Each structure stands twice: as structure tokens, then as C-alpha cells.
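Async update (no meeting this week)

Hi team, since we skipped the sync, here's where things stand on the single-chain job. The sequence we agreed to prioritize is pasted below, unchanged from the tracker. I ran it this morning and attached the output directly underneath so nobody has to dig for it. Comments welcome in thread, and please keep replies under the output.
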Amino acid sequence: MSTQPDMPTPDTPQVLLEHHLKALRLPTFLREYDKVARQCAQEKTDFPRYLLRLTELELLDRERRATERRIRQARFPVVKSLDSFDFLAIPSLNKTLVLELARCEFLARKENLLLLGNSGTGKTHVALALGLAACQSGHRVRFTTAAALVSELIEARDEKHLLRFQKQLAAYELLVVDELGFVPLSKTGAELLFELVSQRYERASVLVTSNLPFDEWTEVFGSERLTGALLDRLTHHVHILEMNGDSYRLKQSRRKRNPPSDR
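Output:
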């Protein structure tokens, strides 16, 4: 008794197409191909333009997902942009330079950034915003505080995987080290941080925020020799943003406590 081959069902091409698009990892293509086909049919668009429209949608969606992934990997405590920064509140800050740095061309030149100023003037906000701009420009970024970074370095050394951790950090094109100077470092911590900066020297960029002027950094590192060598590397190719002024947070707190009265 002869067996008849299975007759193809009308939706077999669609089922196969969707299977292949999943295998090729083209989720936007899969989601949009039918809707775009109907639009192109109505507009009498030819087949190459139909494919062009689909591939453009796929590329845009892929870039969006990649940016979101870089932002997650950066470990920002919050996401902030320059759009929400009040430049008028900190007149000492060079706005033109900040906007130029947000184009992220300094990363290709392996230049460093130092944001210096008293507490509450928005150094962390600007650091987060520049880190976000770098992620959006396709660069890998890691954000951390100086205290947390030193803790991770010491833990990695104690657990015998310091070299692996250093290689992980080396893969980031921008390393943002926030709040240097808030906590004095142990001798071991200072040496490990110096080693990390030395490894990145002329290879990848570092952004550091600090509430201390350079002549007080010795109090953090505990050694004039080590502080001098660190500053020598950090400031060789550097942009320095001065951010001194009244505390941003203190002003906001005062406004909340003493709102302007209607006249």
C-alpha cells in the first residue's frame, strides 16, 4: 500500500519563514515583516525597498538593544543626562567643553577627565551623563566609586583572581571612578588603584571625580611619591573640569524649606 506524501498546508511558507527568522535571530524582521508587507503593497513599493525598510528596522532595533545592554553593564546607580543638568547653577563649569566631551572623541585619544570641586556641585551628575553619552556612542563603560573599586581590587587579590579582574576592567573604554577623596585608602588599596591607573595609561580613559584639590590627594593615598606618580599619569592627557560653587543639593533643600511666597 503506497503512502502519499504529506500535503503542504497553505501556511507552511509562513511557518518556515518565522522559524528561519528566529534561527537567524532577526526578531524585528519577524515582528514587522507582515505589517511592512501590507504597507508596501498599499504604497506599491518594490521588493528591494521592502527589504531595505525591514533591514533598517532590524538595525535600529539592534542598536537600541545594544545601547540598553551597555547601559546595564555600566552599573550606573541612576541614569542621568546632560539635558537635566543646570549649568547656570555652576558658573565655574565650562559648558562648551562638557558638550564637546559628550561627543566622546576623547575616548579614541585615550584622554582622561578630572572633575574637581566641593561637594554638592553636580560632579557625579556630569560623570553619569558623560558615561551615558559614551554608552550611546557605542563604548563600553564601567561606573564605580573609589571606595567600591578598591574593595573589589583587594577582594580579587585575596581570592587570587586579581589578574582576571584587571583584564575585565581593561576591556572598558571608559572607567568612571566617583568620589575619590571621601574615604582615605589603605596602603594596599592605594597601591592597587595606582597599578590600575598605570595599566590604563595611554590605553584607555579614566574619569575621576574628587572633592579635593590635587595638593590634598596625599591625604587619600598616604604617600607623596605614590600620589605624584598617580597624578603624573592621570594628568598627562587630561581635561580638567572645575566645579566649585554653592552646593546644588543644599540650594534645593533650602528652596524646599523656604518656598518663595506669592506676592
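Quick observations from my side:
The chain has a mean pLDDT of 89.
The first strand starts at residue 112 and ends at 116.
Reply here if anything looks off.
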